[in-house]
Amino acid sequence: MRTNELRAFASKALTELAARLRPAVNASAGADQALRTARRIGDDWHQNAYYDDAEKYMNDSWTRLIWPLIQDCDFSAVVDLAAGHGRNTEKLRQIAAKVWVADINAENIDFCRARFRGDARVAYAPCDGVSLTGIPDGAVSLLYCFDAMVHFDSDTVRAYLRDFHRALRPGGRGFCHHSNYTLAPVGDHRRNPHWRNFMSKELFEHYCDKEGLRVVRQQVIDWDEAKSLDCMTVFEKTRAS
Ligand SMILES: C[S@@+](CC[C@H](N)C(=O)[O-])C[C@H]1O[C@@H](n2cnc3c(N)ncnc32)[C@H](O)[C@@H]1O
Using alpha carbons only, what angle is made at residue 51 by residues 46 and 52, rounded to the nearest 5 degrees? Predict the structure, then answer.
């Protein structure tokens, strides 16, 4: 082979290799971006005064909003996603055989470890912000998330729904309290009422459908003075894979 032919051969081979690697490189860049977005929002919740303040509203939220929607669910293996300081876990552990505490912030996991020390029903699953790291496939009967997903970016919501499908048992359910705020499709969500991120009742159902999750019921709710700001959705895993 002459030098020119060798050069042309090498150049063609390199171009083909680059084309073959590009989807993997793009996917990895996309995954990094998704983690960064989740991390940015997770960083709003380090040692926030919110936790002590929110504790006193838990009984009312549980009785008035949450329990009527989830009372027919299976509580044998529950995940409390974005658990914070565990005010929901406290309620769930009274009726569940097992509760995993999951949160993006390690100090919240540590707080809950101390709060629930000695309770063998409570386990801990620090997560990466877009998936249920450490929760085995098909292990979960109820995926629970209250007063946290309302702040998540829509990409984060979609990523979690995909992973919920992996972690849920067939017939397992999810209960998510999410935003129903669509008036600011761009910009910093912290400028929106109660820091709600862009999401709607309909978009959430659309994402559920794409991830093999069937919506069982949805309820639009007010949050303080803000009318119809949020939605609570119960969904069920329908597809086996
Ligand atoms: C407003 S607090 C709510 C805590 C708890 N759910 C409650 O009702 O008290 C928001 C929580 O979401 C957690 N968080 C934020 N982004 C997250 C993410 N992408 N994945 C998991 N947890 C996240 C924060 O660390 C914080 O604990």
Answer: 135
pTM: 0.90
Which amino acid, residue 79?
A: V
- DSSP H or E segment with residue 49: none
- pLDDT of 61-115, one tens digit each? 999 999 999 999 999 999 999 999 999 999 999 999 999 999 999 999 999 999 9
Let me know if residue 29 belongs to a domain.
no
- 22 within domain boundaries: no
Q: Is residue 16 part of a domain?
A: no
Residues of the chain with pLDDT > 90, as a percent, come to 84
CB atoms within 10 A of CB 109: 18
Mutate to test the pocket of ligand 1, among 104, 156, 178 (most ligand atoms within 8 A of CB): 104
